[in-house]
């Protein structure tokens, strides 16, 4: 079977809500990441066959063929097409998988897979709330869906609480995991681990080059003082991912493109998996997805050198570790979304960027990335550093 390779990756540093990147139009953020991928690879911009852009909240400034708008805001020629996709939090991880499938099939040779989300300028759920406020329909869940699953309240927050209870975690365990995420991210940032990943963006007073959500001074007491999101629950804003503005991208090519354009790959894509399970508890599907991915790749969890498991909520990676008997020392070694932020549709490409760089920095070989996603879906991607 034909191979798919990652040639280069890039991401912006995360911006907090109403923070450093609030002044950036999301299409322009996407355009800057595209430009960085072209500049870093040295490829002819006209050689790009397609641009696949993950974005969750496709409304306002992220509406109207948003992927195409990112291309128009970049230095790519107008001849390069684009498409916008939504697989919830896994949107840009799915973009990477679609790009890999395109080059593996031979239908395309050079594809940019990326994601963009400005959660400041296009708030989460704003695309749903507008229709509800205007009285345009009943919302995304029909009577038929409600009858089948016994609810219309498909909530990731409730799913996270359900997982915490199912796997026996208490509030302190979740808070300690959150604290570790901040500590790892702060250490990585201080050591310059993210420097080669980040595309500097101009902001008032200089350039934005550091993830804004990292709290180097976080303590268990400060995290523990944050109020619960639900009375009697365990989830707080401190042990869940941070709202974040950002963009990230990956340049994916086939073997013919490597030779034709004189490119040097940084990783080979080993396995592409997507699975779906219970849409109510919703967020534990990375466990089943990982098992399937490993089986398809003929690998065991111990064969994987580094894992990136999105920290949407602390119980998710903790349950994943517990069920797969995975090594915590290999998990999110440079921190995760609790510290670095979760720019929804951009997070898949963001995590892939960090994973590939971390594999090279540590001299390790295999990495696995997985995301929990709305509706009980999960993407899993295994890569080999080259």
Automatic annotation (TrEMBL):
Keywords: Acyltransferase, Plasmid, Transferase. Its EC number is 2.3.1.16. Coiled coil: none annotated. CDD domains: thiolase (cd00751). It is an enzyme of class 2 (transferase). GO terms for molecular function: acetyl-CoA C-acyltransferase activity. Residues 263-384 form the Thiolase C-terminal domain. Residues 5-255 form the Thiolase N-terminal domain. Pfam families: Thiolase_C, Thiolase_N. SUPFAM superfamilies: Thiolase-like. InterPro entries: Thiolase, Thiolase-like, Thiolase_C, Thiolase_CS, Thiolase_N. The active site is at residues 89, 342, 372. Belongs to the thiolase-like superfamily. Thiolase family. This is 3-ketoacyl-CoA thiolase. It comes from Pseudosulfitobacter pseudonitzschiae. The lineage of its organism: Bacteria, Pseudomonadati, Pseudomonadota, Alphaproteobacteria, Rhodobacterales. The gene is fadA.
């Amino acid at each position: 079977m034909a191979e798919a390779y990652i040639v280069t990756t890039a991401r912006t540093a995360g911006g907090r809500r109403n923070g450093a990147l609030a002044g950036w139009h999301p299409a322009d953020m996407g355009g800057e990441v595209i430009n960085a991928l072209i500049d870093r690879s040295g490829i002819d911009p006209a050689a790009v066959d397609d641009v696949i852009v993950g974005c969750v909240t496709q409304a306002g400034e992220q509406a109207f063929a948003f992927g195409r708008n990112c291309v128009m805001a970049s230095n790519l020629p107008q001849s390069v097409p684009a498409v916008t996709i939504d697989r919830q939090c896994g949107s840009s991880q799915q973009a990477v998988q679609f790009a890999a499938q395109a080059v593996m099939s031979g239908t395309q040779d050079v594809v940019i897979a990326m994601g963009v989300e400005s959660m400041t300028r296009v708030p989460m759920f704003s695309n749903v709330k507008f229709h509800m406020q205007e009285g345009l329909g009943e919302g995304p869940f029909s009577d038929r869906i409600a009858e089948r699953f016994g609810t219309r309240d498909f909530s990731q927050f409730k799913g996270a609480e359900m997982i915490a209870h199912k796997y026996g975690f208490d509030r302190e365990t979740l808070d300690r995991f959150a604290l570790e995420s901040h500590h790892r991210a702060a250490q990585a940032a201080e050591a310059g681990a993210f420097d080669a990943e980040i595309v500097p963006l101009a902001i008032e007073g200089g350039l934005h080059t550091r993830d804004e959500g990292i709290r180097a001074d976080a303590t268990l007491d400060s995290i523990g003082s944050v109020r619960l999101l639900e009375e009697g629950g365990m989830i707080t804003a401190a042990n869940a991912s941070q709202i974040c503005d950002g963009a990230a991208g990956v340049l994916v090519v086939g073997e013919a493109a490597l030779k034709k354009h004189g490119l040097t790959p940084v990783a080979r894509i080993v396995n592409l998996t997507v699975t779906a399970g219970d849409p109510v508890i919703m967020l534990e599907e990375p466990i089943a997805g990982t098992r399937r991915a490993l089986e398809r790749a003929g690998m065991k969890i111990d064969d994987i050198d580094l894992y990136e498991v999105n920290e949407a909520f602390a119980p998710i990676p903790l349950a994943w570790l517990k069920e797969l008997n995975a090594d915590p020392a290999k998990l999110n070694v440079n921190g995760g979304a609790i510290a670095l932020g979760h720019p929804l549709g951009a997070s898949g490409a963001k995590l892939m960027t960090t994973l590939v760089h971390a594999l090279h920095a540590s001299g390790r070989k295999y990495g696995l990335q997985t995301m929990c996603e709305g509706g009980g879906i999960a993407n899993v991607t295994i890569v080999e550093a080259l």
